[in-house]
Specification:
The structure holds two protein chains of two kinds.
Chain A lengths: L3 E4 L2 E5 L4 E7 L3 E9 L5 E6 L3 E5 L2 E6 L4 E6 L8 E9 L7 E2 L3 E6 L1
Parallel strand pairs in A: 2-11
Antiparallel strand pairs in A: 1-3, 3-8, 4-5, 4-9, 6-7, 7-8, 9-10, 9-11
Chain B lengths: L4 E3 L2 E4 L5 E6 L6 E7 L6 E7 L2 E4 L8 E4 L6 E5 L8 E9 L2 E6 L3 E5 L1
Parallel strand pairs in B: 2-11
Antiparallel strand pairs in B: 1-3, 3-8, 4-5, 4-9, 5-6, 7-8, 9-10, 9-11
Classes of the chains: A mainly beta, B mainly beta.
Chain lengths: 110, 113
């Protein structure tokens, strides 16, 4: 099955800093999504981004499908951005299941 | 309801007991997915339904795990003869036919003593 590698595994920032999270896939995927898991465990949808670039406020994401990676940018980070960020995708030509990476744990300090 | 709901939010049981976990998808969503998440890991796929039928059950770890969706809406994940290794957060997600963005519920935290 496909492997999903996320980097960095841990990231500590001061409030106001910018960051880039990366997600690499071992094979081509469909349905690429980025999630934020808050401290209560809820997975919150950030982006559905099989290809291209999207922006939502301080967050943006870019997927380069031909090179099998995606990037999540967080600008002017806030303490409420803390939590674990996951990317996930579905194997091409088959199931719609999502295969997740192990996540990037982000801590934003005041 | 507005989002995916799951009940119970927490379940504590004893080794060897039977448990049922329930998922209510977003109204109108035809696809429903079950995942489980262990501490420090990303969610792992278990099974998904399109309508009433299981389209992919390749993630079920063994025959103690079973899921149903008899009317194409609510789904129940059933675990027989629970083991301590089954302890995890069980997550449910749903998506609209033709639009594969998945939306997750809050999860059920299962603890097997």
């Amino acid at each position: 099955g496909i492997q999903v590698e996320q980097s960095p595994p841990d990231l500590i920032l001061q409030e106001g800093a910018n960051s880039t999270l990366r997600c690499n896939f071992s094979d081509s995927v469909n349905n690429l999504q980025w999630f934020h898991q808050n401290p209560w465990g809820q997975l919150i949808n950030l982006f559905y981004i099989p290809s291209g670039t999207k922006q939502n406020g301080r967050l943006s994401a870019t997927t380069v499908a031909t090179e099998r990676y995606s990037l999540l940018y967080i600008s002017s980070s806030q303490t409420t951005d803390s939590g674990v960020y996951f990317c996930a995708g579905s194997p091409q030509g088959g199931s719609e299941k999502l295969v997740f990476g192990k996540g990037t744990k982000l801590t934003v300090n005041p | 309801g507005a989002g995916v709901s799951q009940t119970p939010s927490n379940k504590v049981t004893e080794k060897g007991k039977y448990v049922e976990l329930r998922c209510d998808p977003i109204s109108g969503h035809t696809a429903l997915y079950w995942y489980r998440q262990s501490l420090g890991q990303g969610p792992e796929f278990l099974i998904y339904f399109q309508g009433t039928g299981a389209a992919d059950d390749s993630g079920l770890p063994n025959d103690r795990f079973f899921a149903v969706r008899p009317e194409g809406s609510v789904s129940t994940l059933k675990i027989q003869r629970t083991e301590r290794g089954d302890s995890a957060v069980y997550l449910c997600a749903s998506s609209l036919l033709g639009v594969n963005e998945q939306f997750f519920g809050p999860g059920t935290r299962l603890t097997v003593l």
